[in-house]
């Protein structure tokens, strides 16, 4: 007879449910990354557009490893802080 361990689930059911949920979350993360735009689609350029730069855009992801390159929540790949693209929006 199987032992009930959590909310009426057996250990096997609990582990199966947990693994299924984890796989679903991993898929959601991958799908979100796949929806990021390509640089060409947003007219990415390596220089600023006046005062508009990636590092003062709401979508900017700051450099986290001290290599001088950041990222963007909307655009694929590495993003230069002094770059610009057509979806630039001022950071609040």
Describe the protein's architecture and organization.
It is built from 1 helix and 4 strands, in the order E-E-H-E-E. By secondary structure, it is α+β, with helices and mostly antiparallel strands. It has a domain at 10-72. The radius of gyration is 21 Å and the shape is elongated. The mean pLDDT is 82.
Q: What's the structural blueprint in terms of helices and strands?
A:
Blueprint: E1 4-6, E2 9-10, H1 11-34, E3 60-61, E4 71-72
Antiparallel strand pairs: 1-2, 3-4
Keywords:
two-stranded antiparallel sheet; alpha+beta; 1 helix; 92 residues; 10% strand; single chain
Distance between the termini: 59 Å
Main sheet overview: 2 strands, antiparallel
Structural class: alpha+beta
Give the beta-strand count. 4
A few lines on this structure:
Helix content is about 25%, strand content about 10%. The chain has 1 helix and 4 strands; from the N terminus they run E-E-H-E-E.
